[in-house]
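Journal club side-thread
Mid-discussion, someone asked how the predicted structure for our own chain would compare to the paper's figures. Pasting it here so we can look after the session.
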Amino acid sequence: MPNIYPAGLTRSMQFWLGGILVKINLVLYTVWLPRRRKTRINTW
């Protein structure tokens, strides 16, 4: 499992990486969801 839990990964690094992933997801969903809803409304 060294790919998931590499040696030397500290607790603070885990929080930073987790925060970065959350921010990436927020950005992607704020871009993707409105576009999906817009195309969904237009197809009805």
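Post-session note: The mean pLDDT is 81.
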